[in-house]
Amino acid sequence: MVSRVWLGFPDIERAAEAYAHLGFWVVRRRQDRAQIFLADGVVLELFSLAHLPLNQACGLGEGGELLKRRRRFYEGRTGLLDYVLSPTASPMQFLAQLEQRDIPYKVVGTRLLPQMVLCPPPLPLWLEPPTPLPAPEQTQHPNGVTGLHALVVGSPAYPAALAQHRRLLGPPLAFEAYEGRRRAVFAIGKHFLYLQGAEQEGLQGLILRSRYALWGALEPTQTQGVALSLVGDPVFELTGDSAPETEG
Questions:
Q1: Greatest Cα-to-Cα distance within the chain, rounded to the nearest angstrom
Q2: All domains of the chain, ordered by start, with CATH?
Q3: pLDDT for the residue 246
Q4: pTM of the entire structure?
Q5: Could you give the CA distance from residue 43 to residue 148 in angstroms, rounded to a whole number?
Q6: Which of helix, strand or coil describes residue 162?
Q7: Rounded to 5 degrees, what angle do the CA atoms 128, 84, 245 make?
Q8: Would residue 86 be called left, alpha or beta, if left means φ above 0 and alpha means ψ between -120 and 50 degrees?
Q9: Average model confidence (pLDDT) for the chain?
Q10: CA distance 55 to 238
């Protein structure tokens, strides 16, 4: 499943106020960041672009090649930056899966960093255990958002990105036509990832579930430039044997 989504803004105060105005319960524990906890275990983390926690979070030295590549990847970006996955399989099962798929990785504390080389990297920043949920009231948002439905990821090198996502996530659930292009639909536990060709690499959009019959995209002026859409529950979910146990 998806566990974290990183968003970066030049003015964190303005961003936190904007998302609170949209009806999210925004938690502020530090001056340079804010968090939005969703009931399905996903955390939307809002950071100041001047204080991205990449050094401390990754635990890598200044000279680490992965860290340098990630820094270059973030340069000039605002809004959606990155995402993190949490395997639903046991740690031993997931390590065995990575080795079977010939995916190199680096262990940093409780996190696994995929080492497949493609720069800029469209793959998740790292893989980690699920994030503990806070008090229940902090996941109940006045706007009715109940969780994440899907991430939209783009790449100008779509065939190479598709091959790398196949290695990490397994075969796509389906392919579909979208805005005149073909995109792959991957299942990541109870979430989805849409991979499509795009001019820019990385996260292109965020689709959230709502308990209300709300469908469509919010205005970028409301979301501080983030491509954010809502889908009303009930929506399609994977159940039983269709839900991968080891993929993300």
A1: 49
A2: 2-114 (3.30.720.120), 142-242 (2.60.40.4320)
A3: 38
A4: 0.84
A5: 9
A6: helix
A7: 65
A8: beta
A9: 82
A10: 36
Assess contact for 125 and 76: CB atoms under 8 A.
no
Rg of the chain, C-alpha, whole Å? 17
**Interval 76-112: pLDDT, tens:** 889 998 888 887 767 677 778 778 877 777 777 667 7
Percent of the chain with pLDDT strictly greater than 90: 44
C-alpha 29/C-alpha 127 separation (Å) is 24
CB 21 within 8 A of CB 36: no
Tell me the residue type at 52.
Answer: L
Per-residue pLDDT, averaged over 228-242, amounts to: 64
For residue 40, what are the contacts with CB-CB under 8 A and spacing of at least 6? 1, 146, 147, 148, 190, 191, 209
On whether the CB atoms of residues 195 and 186 are closer than 8 A, the answer is yes
Element (H, E) at 200: none
Cα-to-chain-centroid distance, residue 106:
20
Fill in the amino acid letter for 187: A
The whole-number pLDDT of residue 171 equals 94
Q: Give the Å distances, CA to CA, from 177 to 82, 195, 197, 198.
A: 25, 11, 11, 14
125-143 pLDDT per residue, tens:
677 777 777 778 889 999 9
Strands (E), 39-163: 43-48, 79-85, 105-108, 111-114, 145-155
29 Cβ contact list (under 8 Å, min separation 6): 35
- Residues 196 and 166: their CA atoms lie apart, in Å, by 13
